[in-house]
Every structure is written in structure tokens, then in C-alpha cells.
Amino acid sequence: MIKKECLDIVQAKCENCQDCILGKTRNNVVFSDGNPETARIVLIGEAPGETEDETGKPFVGRAGKLLNQFLEEAGISRQDDLYIINTVKCRPPENRVPTDVEKALCERYLTAQIDIMNPQAIIFCGATSLKSFWSDKKVQISKVRGNWFDVTINGKTYKAMAIFHPSYLLRNHSIEEGSPRRLMQQDLAVIKSEILGDKMVCSTESHNQEMAMV
Ligand code: URA
Q: Residue 206: is its pLDDT beyond 90?
């Protein structure tokens, strides 16, 4: 079976899931985005927000738009290179952080997605996503981001990296050397060159000017 067919089976189960209370308030299950047949990287975010809940797609609100800009600048195709998922598939009310119980009850979908995708790398986007798989729950994303580490999921070890969450970058506009936005650019450039191969895109300077306005 091709990956998409396997994922469709998991998605069908997930669409009917009422394992936790998020099932009661969601409008849509937010299962994934990207082409599973071409994606070599799985990117894991935190949880769907309002726009994601309305559309059924991850990272389509303000944070998602900023993420798209960074990806584009790095030469990473959201549709072809990434398979995007979240630690939980349903929106937590008021966009609160998902609880440990909600994450635990949703984990079987997440691990099934990773198993089927068998990615070359996993990108943990933001602290909630990172902490779901990092043993020290006090880990600071600012300390570990940008460095490759190994993560073992369902007995299989993957190469992984944490990056800042775009919501954090929406609150941090600086594009000075060493700023979170600059570090995000650096991290995505490493991911691009080491996982997807180098293929240069457009000038960082003009993108920085555009992004400073977001
Ligand atoms: N933030 C996330 O972590 N995931 C989404 O899908 C949207 C915003």
C-alpha cells in the first residue's frame, strides 16, 4: 500500500475520535498537510488554532503564514518536502496548551503517522512539540534548537531538530544577528542543505525586510 492509503485509514479513525474532551468542541479534525509520497521531513507543531479548526488544515492562520514565508525563503516546499502534523489533532478551547492527557490519548495517531511516513528527519516546531518527545520536560527550546539529535518513536530512531514556533516569532520582530528570526533562518537553511540538498532561492536581505513587517 502506498503511504497515502495507509494514512487515509488512520485519518478515518481519527475523524471519529472522541477519546478526549477536545472531540466535543472541535469543528474539524486537523490531521495533516503536505504530500506524504514526496515529503522527506515530518514537521510537528503544537495544536490546531481557530483557523485550523475551521479549515481542517494545520498552520494556516497567522503563525502558519509566517512559517510559510520562512520555508519559502529557505527553499523548502511546504507541499512537497514536508508532512505537517500536530501533537493533538483537535483545537484546545481558547488555544490553550494541550494537556498531557490529551497528548497521550492522541499519541497513537501521531506515532502511526510517523511510522507510515518513515521520514528522513523530524522537525519539532515549538516547545510543546519538543517536550512531547524529550525526557527532561524542563528543556528550553532556545538551548537545543538548531542541533540534530536522535529520537526513538515506536522502536525506530530518527534524526530530529527543534525549531522555534512561528507564534513566538510573531511576538519577536527583531532581525538582528542572533535574534529568534535569524536563528529560524539558520535552522531552516541547515535542514534544507542537510536533508533536502542545496538549491538557493532568493536574497535573505529582501526577505528580512518583508518579514520585519509581518
Ligand atoms: N500552531 C500549531 O502548532 N499548529 C497549527 O496547526 C497551527 C498553529
A: no
